[in-house]
């Protein structure tokens, strides 16, 4: 068993004052009960670099059942990866996991590529702290903070890499990326958010195996695509995904429009939109998730419109949106409601730039659930392109008067789980003539009544 490099309290900046008090209580209780209690993963990395961790994960040699017995307010969750959630007031959850060992050949199944396939499918065998460090993705994510001694324990060279500001995989990058291709996206994301460099072998490995990204589960990839945008380092992350060729694998349509050297006239605006979104996130402003997705899809819509060349009337725009959005939504397994909102948001963006709030038909837009989202997208677009400033101000005034403005700091994507936060109930959707995304049936499987014909005129054509 290897001995870790031990950085005593005096040699590192992690003070207990920076650790979440509930996480600290868990660590102490584990320790008093005779178990090891370590702060693990991202929280150690963030505290070592003077950042505020998003969450404080805990590692221990106590087994899930033993952890469960120590904390009455806890639950064992997960099948593939059994760990314990400890619950606190205000909905806070601290994750406590038993140390695991890296997967071995027996844990992986031969799959599509025969014996070549080393994709991890099982990851639940308990191990030592050292083994737990070795199964982690990058050296900077493999550090432990030990509550018994207040020391940082380094089995993987993470402290040196933090000092050298380098992202390096633990072990051979080709193997680690083939085990879990999402790690390639994460490497770029960590490099972007920490402003670190990616180590040469790691970059070489991405070039070699980036095609394996296609094997990753679509919802995980979708989550990775949105996370940096939500958290305020989207521009830098997408730049790295594009430069390493990863974006060309997962979203080739987008990469074609925005990559270095692309001749697309929308390229600069796209990058400015992401930078603008990041900057707003930095000041605590909320940007609804469908607007962020809308920003990603906008260069594709513009590209398609440009290629069509003809007059862009409403039906054509709708057809273009279907054509652009559907294949990507399918590939990324985006939830129907999200797709629905994104399409509305992109469609409404066009209307907001064409009409003024003084038009009666346009004013009705304000009552739609996707109006603030579309306005948010218009705001990003307008600031990035220098166009439509007047329209933006006029619509913002209308929204402020309607009292529906998303307050700065109120983050819809985090305050409530996404669809509930933004999606109106199905009854509201059908009242506004928009067919439910489930097709001819409502969510509970009943057939929907046909829409009223005649009578009230449609203010927006239906989007399916
Ligand atoms: P943040 O939560 O701030 O985005 P993080 O480092 O905590 O950053 P998580 O996704 O929460 O990232 O993961 C927690 C830890 O679990 C990581 O620090 C890393 O040690 C380990 N980990 C996460 N994903 C993987 C993976 N795909 N392969 C190996 N280890 C991983
Ligand atoms: Mg985390």
What does this structure look like?
- This protein has 464 residues and is an alpha+beta fold.
- The protein has three domains: 1-163, Beta Polymerase, domain 2 (2-Layer Sandwich), CATH 3.30.460; 165-250, Hydrophobic Seed Protein (Orthogonal Bundle), CATH 1.10.110; 265-439, cca-adding enzyme, domain 2 (Orthogonal Bundle), CATH 1.10.3090.10.
- The protein contains 22 helices and ten strands.
- It has helices at residues 21-32, 42-48, 64-70, 129-134, 158-163, 173-179, 182-194, 200-209, 218-231, 234-243, 246-250, 252-258, 267-282, 289-308, 314-331, 336-354, 360-363, 371-385, 389-402, 412-415, 418-422, 426-431, and strands spanning 5-7, 37-40, 57-60, 74-77, 83-87, 93-98, 143-146, 151-154, 166-167, 197-198.
- An eight-stranded mixed sheet has the order 1-8-7-2-3-6-5-4.
- A hairpin with a 4-residue loop joins β7 (143-146) and β8 (151-154).
- α6 packs across α8 (200-209), α14 crosses α16 and α14 packs across α18 (371-385).
- The chain is elongated.
- It starts with a strand and ends in a 33-residue tail after the last helix.
- Residues 108-115 and 404-464 have low confidence and may be disordered.
- Bound molecules: adenosine-5'-triphosphate and magnesium ion.
- Adenosine-5'-triphosphate binds next to α7.
């Amino acid at each position: 068993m290897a001995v870790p490099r031990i950085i005593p309290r005096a040699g590192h900046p992690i003070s207990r004052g920076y650790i979440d008090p509930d996480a600290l209580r868990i660590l102490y209780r584990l320790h008093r009960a005779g178990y090891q209690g370590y702060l693990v993963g991202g929280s150690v990395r963030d505290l070592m670099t003077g950042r505020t961790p998003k969450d404080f994960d805990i590692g221990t040699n106590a087994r899930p059942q033993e952890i469960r017995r120590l904390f009455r307010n806890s639950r064992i969750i997960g099948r593939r990866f059994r760990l314990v959630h400890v619950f606190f007031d205000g909905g806070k959850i601290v994750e406590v996991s038993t140390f695991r060992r890296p997967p071995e050949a027996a844990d992986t199944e031969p799959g599509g590529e025969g014996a070549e396939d080393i994709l991890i499918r099982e990851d639940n065998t308990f191990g030592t702290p050292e083994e737990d460090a070795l199964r982690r993705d990058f050296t900077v994510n493999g550090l432990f903070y030990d509550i018994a001694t207040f020391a940082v324990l380094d089995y993987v060279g993470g402290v040196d890499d933090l000092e050298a500001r380098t992202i390096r995989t633990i072990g051979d990058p080709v193997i680690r990326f083939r085990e879990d291709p999402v790690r390639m996206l994460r490497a770029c994301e960590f490099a972007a958010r920490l402003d670190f460099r990616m180590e040469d072998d790691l970059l070489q490995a991405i070039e070699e195996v980036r095609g394996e990204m296609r094997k990753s589960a679509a919802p995980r990839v979708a989550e990775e695509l949105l996370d940096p945008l939500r958290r305020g380092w989207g521009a830098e992350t997408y730049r790295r995904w594009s430069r390493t060729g990863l974006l060309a694998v997962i979203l080739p349509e987008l990469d074609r429009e925005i990559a270095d050297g692309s001749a697309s006239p929308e390229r600069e605006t796209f990058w400015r939109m992401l930078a603008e979104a990041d900057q707003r996130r930095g000041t605590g402003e909320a940007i609804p998730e469908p607007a962020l997705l809308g920003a990603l899809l906008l260069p594709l819509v513009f590209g398609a419109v440009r290629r069509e060349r003809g007059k862009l009337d409403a039906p054509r725009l709708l057809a273009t949106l279907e054509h652009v959005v559907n294949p990507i939504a399918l590939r990324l397994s985006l939830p129907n409601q999200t797709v629905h909102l994104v399409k509305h948001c992109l469609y409404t963006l066009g209307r907001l730039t064409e009409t003024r709030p003084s038009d009666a038909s346009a004013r009705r837009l304000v009552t739609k659930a996707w109006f603030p989202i579309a306005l948010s997208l218009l705001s990003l677009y307008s600031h990035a392109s220098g166009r439509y400033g007047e329209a933006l101000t006029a619509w913002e005034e209308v929204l402020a008067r309607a009292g529906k403005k998303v307050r700065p700091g109120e983050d819809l994507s985090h305050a409530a789980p996404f669809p509930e936060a933004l999606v109106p109930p199905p009854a509201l959707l059908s009242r506004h003539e928009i067919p439910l995304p489930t097709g001819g049936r409502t969510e509970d499987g009943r057939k929907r009544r046909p829409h009223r014909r005649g009578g009230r005129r449609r203010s927006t054509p239906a989007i399916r």
